[in-house]
Amino acid sequence: MSRIDYDAVSERYDCSRRFDSDFTRELLAVLPEDFAPRRMLDVGCGTGNATACLREAYPAAAVAGLDLSAGMLGRARAKSPGLPLVRGNAAELPFSAAAFDLVLSAYMLHHLERREEFCVEAARCLAPGGRLVILTAGHDQIRAHFLIRFFPRFGEIDCERFPSLAEVEAGLTSAGLTVGGRREIPVADYAIDERYLARVRNRHVSTLELMGEEEFAEGLARISEWVRSYAGPEEKRPRHTARGTLLTAEKRGGF
Predict the structure, then answer these.
(1) What is the Cα 138 distance to its own chain's centre?
(2) What angle, rounded to 10 degrees, do the helices at 115-125 and 165-174 form?
(3) Structural domain of 134
């Protein structure tokens, strides 16, 4: 599996990637209304964007973040001084058993070589009645992405590195968790315009980081020409809504 240097990416990451209150609402929608976690963990927290959504969703709870990249953690610390952040591997979580009531993994699973071990570790770190929430992309969602028409290998790259939703659920079940369900959510909605082109230039999705310079330049040229050929009114520009899937699992027992 090719690795992305997130220490280098961290310098430009927040220019084009973020979560907002829409994600907070989606997160709350997949959890029981009476769910009241006391301790939460964001695994693969990056610069802390999804971590902030956890804090927004459950302001009375304590939250911590874990990431393997020192650069990403540095950015997270700058944005949220005092937030407990730990550098570590998702397959070897450096926390005690039953330490958290809620564990979140947002677009992290596809970066792991040892996905099953993460599920086992997340289950170990959950208290009875705790929930694991995973945000990922199903293969159908990947194949529907707008960028495939300009970067032909986009879908191939992501379908190879993203596990299928069935594989994710099998891993959760194997770890002893009870799978709750799936919820498709919009994760980004863009007008395809010059601002979107700036995001693409910034390689706003990790898939683009895995392309060689020539391949990336050719795709960028194609989408640039497409954007600039649009002759209609700005308010009617084509839009792309990227979609992901939230999966939930519970560690059975009294909360």
Answers:
(1) 12
(2) 50
(3) 6-250
Q: What is the CA radius of gyration of the chain?
A: 19
Specify whether the CB–CB gap between 48 and 13 falls below 8 A: no
Residue 185: both structure tokens together: 């959510």
Tokens of 132: 């694991």
Q: How do strand 126-136 and strand 239-250 relate by DSSP bridges?
A: antiparallel
Tokens at 209, concatenated: 């980081």
d(CA 253, CA 13): 39
Neighbours of 211 (CB within 10 A): 18
pLDDT at residue 3, rounded to an integer: 76
CB 99 within 8 Å of CB 127: yes
Domain for residue 166, yes or no?
Answer: yes
Identify the CATH number of the domain in which residue 129 sits: 3.40.50.150
Whole-prediction pTM = 0.93
C-alpha dist (Å) from residue 207 to 52, 118, 154, 166, 253? 24, 22, 7, 22, 39
Q: How many distinct structural domains can be found in the chain?
A: 1
Q: Does residue 185 carry a pLDDT above 60? A: yes
pLDDT tens digits, 14-54: 777 778 789 999 999 999 999 999 999 999 999 999 999 99
How far, in Å, CA of 184 to CA of 134, rounded? 12
